[in-house]
From TrEMBL:
<feature type="transmembrane region" description="Helical">
    <location>
        <begin position="56"/>
        <end position="74"/>
    </location>
</feature>
<feature type="transmembrane region" description="Helical">
    <location>
        <begin position="162"/>
        <end position="183"/>
    </location>
</feature>
<dbReference type="InterPro" id="IPR020846">
    <property type="entry name" value="MFS_dom"/>
</dbReference>
<dbReference type="InterPro" id="IPR011701">
    <property type="entry name" value="MFS"/>
</dbReference>
<feature type="transmembrane region" description="Helical">
    <location>
        <begin position="331"/>
        <end position="353"/>
    </location>
</feature>
<feature type="region of interest" description="Disordered">
    <location>
        <begin position="1"/>
        <end position="20"/>
    </location>
</feature>
<feature type="transmembrane region" description="Helical">
    <location>
        <begin position="302"/>
        <end position="325"/>
    </location>
</feature>
<feature type="transmembrane region" description="Helical">
    <location>
        <begin position="269"/>
        <end position="290"/>
    </location>
</feature>
<feature type="transmembrane region" description="Helical">
    <location>
        <begin position="236"/>
        <end position="257"/>
    </location>
</feature>
<protein>
    <submittedName>
        <fullName>MFS transporter</fullName>
    </submittedName>
</protein>
<feature type="transmembrane region" description="Helical">
    <location>
        <begin position="119"/>
        <end position="141"/>
    </location>
</feature>
<feature type="domain" description="Major facilitator superfamily (MFS) profile">
    <location>
        <begin position="31"/>
        <end position="421"/>
    </location>
</feature>
<dbReference type="GO" id="GO:0005886">
    <property type="term" value="C:plasma membrane"/>
</dbReference>
<keyword id="KW-1003">Cell membrane</keyword>
<keyword id="KW-0812">Transmembrane</keyword>
<keyword id="KW-0813">Transport</keyword>
<feature type="transmembrane region" description="Helical">
    <location>
        <begin position="31"/>
        <end position="50"/>
    </location>
</feature>
């Protein structure tokens, strides 16, 4: 077994002993670079199609509004809701099979969606698209987290730097994808779907060639009962609740923010600019923010600071709304909310992902990574329904925003307080444990 984590790592809060000018990317292993570039490609292919799906279903195919909502909901459920299943499959069968199977399903789903003309065919296509993500996303995220722990153990710096690169790559893909999709829609929606499928064909080919058959130190586990143990893991469940509060806050970009923008300007035209602002902030500032936080804050303090910034963003709109500003001035509280929410996201997301290896059982990192998304998604589902009802009550504009500010503020108290146990990541030699098989 490897030496205790505390002996192998510099004390958190001290500066990285490596030269400050040495870029994180140059010190990553080829496997980490492959996985991070994979995240970029995933999001380019995904966001080249999905942002335009609702309009296509309603106008080109002529589905009723409730059917469009059902299709979008089923896609979200088949993705977020099944992350925990995908994570379990990753632990059992390995990273490479999960990523390759996910790419095959995504190619088939996008190609099918491009030719789907009836409700049942559209539903089948989006279920394939969603389940594909439930396979490859836990695989990529859990292996990046595992490799980030090893990277930290080697003395390269906080693991959050690696996970920040993953977040920045994903956000860059989410920014480029809709731009590509908008250009492709000049031809038609089918072309956008086929190009999206083509992106995943390239990812499939790249992983077939470059992904190792066996990743040193990665184990496959066959023991049962992991779900029961997970549900008794109070510290992990507390992390899920705190992370779910962040996701609920982030979801207000699509629920509460449009109402505020329309109140201030009379339309929702400025929304695209605010979304672009959020994406560019992550792409440009994620790495500097994570570097700063990694040198000064532990994981709990980083998440607490991020949640506090998010709460401040909601409070800013609550304070600015009663002034009744309109036009460009009226957008200032909304823009401030987007900036603070995005800064909070930059602290919360890498820290939450970095914390999971310390809370997961040995050999169950995929399951716990998937469960973080699935359990948090349940919180968002319940919370979004409550938020929608709150926005429909006709209350003063400040009241819903104050209520929303209370959610991330209260979540700070949910964060686990006791120090996490050292992440049990096998050494590079790939030591096996009882009842486990390290072959992938």
């Amino acid at each position: 077994m490897p030496a205790p984590f505390s002996r192998a790592l510099p004390r958190r809060g001290t500066r990285d002993p490596k030269p400050a000018r040495e870029r994180t990317w140059t010190r990553l292993s080829p496997l980490l670079r492959l996985l991070i570039l994979t995240q970029l490609a995933f999001n380019i292919g995904f966001y080249a199609v999905l942002p335009f799906l609702a309009e296509h279903l309603g106008t080109a195919i002529g589905l009723a509004g409730w059917t469009v909502g059902l299709v979008l909901g089923l896609r979200t459920f088949s993705q977020q809701g099944l992350f925990v299943l995908g994570g379990w499959l990753v632990d059992r069968y390995g990273v490479r099979p999960a990523v390759l199977a996910g790419c095959v399903l995504r190619v088939a789903g996008f190609a099918w969606l491009g030719y789907a003309q009836a409700a049942w065919t559209v539903i089948g296509a989006v279920l394939l698209i969603g389940f594909a993500a439930a396979l490859f996303s836990p695989a990529v995220e859990s292996e990046v987290a595992r490799q980030a722990v090893l990277w930290e153990r080697a003395g390269h710096g906080p693991r959050t730097r690696v996970l920040a690169l993953l977040s920045a790559a994903g956000q860059a893909g989410a920014f480029v994808g809709p731009l590509l999709g908008g250009l492709l829609l000049a031809v038609d929606f089918r072309t956008a779907c086929l190009v999206g499928a083509g992106v995943f064909v390239l990812v499939l080919a790249g992983h077939s060639r470059l992904m190792p058959q066996h990743i040193p130190g990665r184990v496959r586990t066959r023991e049962r009962g992991a779900g029961r143990v997970l549900l008794r893991n109070r510290r992990f469940l507390a992390l899920c609740c705190a992370y779910g509060s962040y996701l609920l806050a982030y979801n207000q970009l699509y629920l509460a923010l449009p109402d505020e923008v329309e109140r201030a300007t009379g339309s929702q035209a400025a929304l695209s600019w605010l979304f672009a602002l959020s994406s560019l902030l992550v792409v440009c500032a994620q790495l500097p923010v994570s570097r700063w936080a990694g040198e000064r804050l532990d994981l709990r303090r980083s998440m607490a600071a991020g949640l506090a910034l998010i709460a401040a963003g909601f409070a800013l709109v609550a304070v600015g709304s009663p002034a009744g500003w309109t036009g460009a001035a009226g957008l200032l509280p909304a823009a401030g909310f987007v900036v603070l929410l995005t800064l909070g996201q930059m602290l919360v997301v890498p820290a939450a992902r970095a914390w999971v290896p310390d809370l997961a059982e040995d050999g169950r990192l995929g399951l716990y990574t998937g469960a973080l998304s699935s359990l948090s998604g349940v919180i968002v589902l319940i919370g979004s329904s409550a938020t929608g009802s709150l926005l429909d009550l006709g209350l003063p504009a400040a009241v819903p925003w104050l209520a929303l500010a209370a959610v991330p503020a209260a979540a700070v108290a949910l964060l686990p307080r006791r120090p996490a146990r050292p992440a049990a990541v096998p050494a590079a030699s790939g030591e096996q444990r009882h009842g486990q098989d390290d072959r992938q």
